Automatic annotation (TrEMBL), chain A:
InterPro entries: Cyt_c_oxase-like_su1_dom (IPR023616), Cyt_c_oxase-like_su1_sf (IPR036927), Cyt_C_Oxase_1 (IPR000883), Cyt_c_Oxase_su1_BS (IPR023615). This is Cbb3-type cytochrome c oxidase subunit I. The chain crosses the membrane at residues 44-66, 93-119, 140-158, 189-215, 227-255, 288-309, 321-341, 353-378, 390-412, 424-450, 462-490, 510-532. Keywords: Electron transport, Heme, Iron, Membrane, Metal-binding, Respiratory chain, Transmembrane, Transmembrane helix, Transport. Residues 27-595 form the Cytochrome oxidase subunit I profile domain. It is a multi-pass membrane protein. It is found in: Membrane. It comes from the Bacteria. The lineage of its organism: Bacteria, Pseudomonadati, Bacteroidota, Cytophagia, Cytophagales. Its main location: membrane. Belongs to the heme-copper respiratory oxidase family.
Automatic annotation (TrEMBL), chain B:
The keyword Acetylation does not apply. It is a multi-pass membrane protein. SUPFAM superfamilies: Cytochrome c oxidase subunit III-like (SSF81452). InterPro entries: Cyt_c/ubiquinol_Oxase_su3, Cyt_c_oxidase-like_su3, Cyt_c_oxidase_su3-like_sf, Cyt_c_oxidase_su3_a-hlx. This is Heme-copper oxidase subunit III. The lineage of its organism: Bacteria, Pseudomonadati, Bacteroidota, Cytophagia, Cytophagales. The chain crosses the membrane at residues 20-42, 54-75, 87-109, 129-153, 174-192.
Length: 608, 194
């Protein structure tokens, strides 16, 4: 957070020493406390995959409860112990499951796992740098994340259970230790983990921005950068601006919890007794939280935008449609994401006029979002598509983003949101547009860059099966939820059988749960493919996808310092695919115009 | 620690990457305080707000921290002109003034307690709690700044800070001026909103 004194020795290591033959690094320096951006990226990836399975498993547990509300779950006793009472899931533990599922997925998988992996791995490789601006800060960023992970994971095993007030940790549930079992030590550990997590994000973010701005190779102007880097860069800026605000909110919450202040608490009675806290405002917390929270959802999705743009254009063998419009829309989304937060609070009793302002701003976001979708579709239009696993996930991403984005426009209308707020409609919306879509972006990235990470290819057939099972089950799970939501079915309810109106949905809930189990099981295909391919996969070539960006000009397994010789210079944008007159259907960024006279456009003749 | 060489990757902007990083860290600190002060305003608008007088010592503290910025700048300038004796003296003065500021803030807190304005507890009001949080979190950053000054002071003892090795003291000066500026902002903000 503050003045860590990072010193850089400018004089050590000459260029030719920085690669392959690095015998002087021991195991710890190489694989554990590594400062190499590629290793740090893989550390984030593996931790992220671990968390994804934990988060997914928790969701299967609460889907069991929702799908079979009358069943007894004695078979879960060996895993859950005291949380199963007479075969019934403890209601407060149900809330804890939902909370931890949300926290883990949003922050630990789709923020740290996704950004941490691809920003670290790709930024230096794609802009032509030997490493991040500060390898040390980068390493710290991972280890802060690791520490946060350990603490959050520990909280799962507390006797009183982990935090249970929802991933948005609204007070008073999160502020009063007596509110829920999980509001005690579970919530304390949640806050500590989150504080460490924010420090990790800030350290990482500072590094990403500095690296993109300062360490680009010769010729790599901002407008020659791949869209991946643009997306990562803007995401890092969002994080740098939004996470400190969450830190402030968390700090005030900590004071309310442990130091008797009343920032967010007022007029609370427990068992007829008034609490000492007075004068606070719980709505204030919502404002602070969503000021981070809304940019956060774009922090999750924008890296996927970048990855998908890159993979779609590479496998369409066509230049990306509207490169500048893509950058412009990213900027528009980034900017707008800071002025729409109150659409999560339409029913908090806020001034209806203010609600209209936020509604207007919210609906404007649909414009840049649509620009992106049209550009992806236009890139795919009449292309010679290569259906690699990565490409399938990229196209799946576009589909999910459209389906989920449309319901965003419905929710953005403050009057419609009165009916839909806190129902399964919202759950369906954000799982399609953020949860599933960002996961697809992540899979897309892993399948695509796996050869550069591990020097081997993932199995395409397994990838194909993984894709279809995942794609189908995502829709089977979340499409029906829209209907539940429109009928008013509330989210975060442990049991709904007591409500006459919702009993007709028993079959639908069972159906959703079966689809969820199917989807979760399909992820083990991915896990197997991932682990198996690291050791036994087909060996990759240096540029297996015939792509243009700089990372593919490195050796099959780039060493420390990335390029054995000099860092290549860049002459053109990254999207010269299928250029008329060119010898091959791709021209890497490192090829000067003087070597491609037959394909140069009139305005490029000047650069020959 | 594996060193990274920048000679090939000449910084594209001409700014040293660490200096750039420092600016980014400063931005994130600004966002933290922006959150606190806007929360303050929003909460104040809602009423039920205890009005009380700011501790009078805050004005003196403000003068102290401005002075410390001056000495920090002088230290920077003497490093640039290789006046190593003045450099050490000025750094020492900065350190002293910084500590004096912290002590002054502490007195401010006791003055508040004396006037029955508490941080927490049943008689506290967010109005008071916010004041403690703003000064406290700022004070925490002052401590990090002082540690930084101390580090620069120690390396100046080893003759490692001079006109050819300015990076450290430059970073330190930027950070220290920022912390001073931040306090000025907070002080004016509190004056206006009291
Ligand atoms: C067309 C663009 C979008 C619009 C107009 C929109 C609008 C909304 C609105 C109004 C809500 C609040 C619903 C309620 O709680 O009653 C909401 C919830 C949510 N949206 Fe969106 N959204 C859009 C796109 C996105 C994207 C791209 C993401 C993430 C990548 C996202 C993630 C979320 C999440 C996570 C929530 C629920 C948070 C919670 O209550 O737990 N939305 N959206
Ligand atoms: Cu939102």
């Amino acid at each position: 957070m503050s003045s860590t004194d990072i010193s850089i020795n400018e004089d050590v290591h000459h260029a030719h020493e920085e690669h392959d033959h690095h015998h002087d690094q021991n195991f710890f320096e190489k694989y554990i406390f590594s400062q190499d951006h590629k290793t740090i990226g893989k550390q984030f990836l593996i931790t992220g995959i671990f968390w994804a399975f934990v988060g997914g498993f928790l969701s299967i547990l609460f889907r069991l409860q929702l799908g079979w509300p009358e069943a007894t779950f004695t078979f879960l006793e060996p895993i859950l112990g005291g949380w199963i009472e007479n075969g019934k899931l403890n209601p407060e533990f149900y809330l804890a499951l939902v909370t931890m599922h949300g926290t883990i997925m949003v922050f630990f998988v789709l923020t740290a796992g996704l950004s941490g992996t691809f920003f670290n791995f790709l930024i230096p490789l794609q802009i032509g740098a030997r490493d991040m601006a500060s390898g040390f800060m980068n390493m710290l960023s991972y280890w802060f994340f690791f520490l946060a992970s350990v603490i959050l994971f520990t909280s799962l095993f507390l006797e009183t259970g982990p935090a249970a007030g929802g991933w948005t940790v609204y007070p008073p549930l999160s502020a009063l230790p007596e509110a829920l079992a999980g509001s005690g030590s579970g919530m304390t550990l949640w806050l500590i983990a989150m504080a460490l997590f924010i420090v990790s994000q800030l350290l990482g973010g500072v590094n990403y921005i500095t690296t993109v701005i300062n360490l680009r190779t010769k010729g790599m102007s901002m407008t020659k950068m791949p869209l991946t880097i643009w997306a990562f860069f803007l995401t890092a800026i969002l994080g740098l601006l939004a996470f400190p605000v969450l830190f402030s909110a968390a700090l005030l919450l900590i004071f309310d919890r442990s130091f008797g202040t009343s920032f967010f608490l007022s007029d609370i009675y427990i068992g007829g007794q008034a609490l000492a806290h007075s004068g606070g405002s719980p709505i204030l917390f919502q404002h602070l939280f969503w000021f981070l929270g809304h940019p956060e959802v774009y922090i999750v999705i924008m890296p996927a935008f970048g990855i998908v743009s890159e993979v779609i254009t590479t496998n369409s063998r066509k230049p990306i449609f509207g490169y500048r419009a893509m950058i412009g829309s990213l900027m528009g989304i980034a900017l707008l994401s800071f002025v729409v937060w109150a659409h999560h609070m339409f029913v908090s009793g806020m001034n209806p006029f203010l609600g209209s302002v936020f509604m207007f701003l919210t609906l404007i976001i649909a414009v840049p979002s649509a620009v992106k979708v049209f550009n992806w579709l236009a890139t795919l239009w009449r292309a010679n598509i290569r259906f690699t696993s990565a490409m399938m996930f990229a196209i799946g991403f576009v589909s999910l983003f459209i389906s989920g984005g449309l319901t965003g426009i419905i929710l953005g209308n403050s009057s419609l949101d009165i009916q839909l707020h806190d129902t399964y409609f919202v759950v369906a919306h954000f799982h399609l547009v953020m949860g599933a879509a960002a996961f697809f972006g992540m899979f897309c990235g892993v399948y695509h860059w796996f050869p550069k990470m591990f020097g081997r290819m993932m199995d395409e057939k397994l990838g194909f099966v993984h894709f279809w099972l995942t794609f189908v089950s995502v829709y089977l799970v979340f499409m029906p939820m829209h209907y539940l939501g429109i009928a008013g079915f509330p989210r975060r309810y442990y049991t709904w059988t007591g409500f006459e109106a919702f009993n007709v949905f028993t079959d639908m809930n069972t159906f959703i749960s079966i689809a969820a189990i199917l989807g979760f099981s399909a992820q083990f295909i991915f896990l197997f493919n991932f682990v198996y391919s690291i050791f036994k996969g087909r060996r990759a070539t240096a540029n297996p996808w015939h792509a243009n960006t700089l990372e593919w000009t490195t050796p099959v397994l780039p060493g420390h310092g990335n390029w054995p010789g000099e860092i290549p210079a860049v002459y053109r944008w990254p999207y010269d695919y299928s250029k008329p007159g060119a010898a091959e259907d791709f021209i890497p960024q490192t090829v000067p115009f003087s070597e491609t006279q037959s394909s140069n456009l009139p305005q490029e003749k000047d650069f020959e | 620690m594996v060193a990274r060489s920048f000679d090939e990757n000449k910084s594209t902007t001409g700014i040293h990457p660490l200096k750039f990083s420092l600016w980014l860290i400063i931005i994130s600190i600004i966002m933290m305080f922006a959150a606190f002060t806007s929360a303050y305003i929003v909460r104040r608008e809602e009423g039920n707000w205890l009005e009380f007088d700011l501790p009078s010592i805050l004005l003196i503290n403000t003068v102290v921290i401005v002075l410390s910025s001056v000495t920090m700048q002088l230290a920077h300038n003497s490093a640039k002109s290789n006046n190593l004796q003045t450099l050490k003296l000025m750094l020492l003065l900065t350190l002293g003034l910084g500590i004096a500021f912290l002590v002054g803030q502490w007195y401010g807190w006791s003055e508040l307690v004396h006037n029955n304005v508490y941080f927490g507890g049943s008689t506290s009001n967010p109005a008071g709690s916010f004041l403690y949080v703003l000064t406290g979190v700022h004070g925490f950053h002052i401590i990090t700044g002082l540690i930084f000054v101390l580090i620069v002071l120690m390396s100046s003892m080893k003759y490692k800070v001079h006109s050819k090795n300015m990076l450290r003291i430059q970073l330190c000066t930027i950070y220290w001026h920022f912390l001073g500026g931040l306090w000025l902002y907070l002080y004016i903000f509190l004056r206006l909103n009291h």
